[in-house]
Amino acid sequence: MIIMMVVWFNYFVRIQPKMLDGTISRGASIGLFIGAVVVLIILEVVVHIFLAMTNAKTADKAADERDKIIKCKAGNISGWVLAVLVVMVGSYAIQQDVSSVLIANLLLLSLVLTQCVDYAMALFYYRRGW
Amino acid sequence: MPNTISNDIRRLRFAHDEMTQQALADAIGLTRQTVIAIEKNRYSPSLEAAFKIAEVFDVPLDEVFQYRKKA
Fold first, then answer.
1. Nearest to A129 among B1, B29, B30 (CB)
2. Are B67 and B5 contacting, i.e. CB atoms less than 8 angstroms apart?
């Protein structure tokens, strides 16, 4: 979750000023996006290898019934969050004359926020139970 | 959030040669974290897992789990 937040925060901080004043091209936007995805994948792989090495016993264990229920519950809530955000972006895009780059990035932001909610809810259920 | 199902898993583990949470988890196919959550009444296991736990301790199900009505 922290890796994802750091990478995408960095991406949006970089792209936001250029996007709002309309100086970013579609190619530059895609370039930044691909860069962020590559960095995210590399960091995720490195962290997962580190976690697998430090928790060798549980690293290759499949999710059990509680893990699956928590994933379902968190996914249910984050699904609603995504639906609301997509409707909001869609409504904004219909009302305002905005560029496709802005819409694409707003949708990307929605996905990132949804994933954050998903991780946060999973953490909440793991710690508090139900 | 405490639920209405309590259990005696901790006592039963100690009565069975001080079985570890990991050993119980391996015996019933759950993770140690899930066994911890069950013991602390933070998670009610599936019926299948509940029967497996009772089988490991060789006791009836109601000796492991107790249901209390909410007041």
1. B1
2. yes
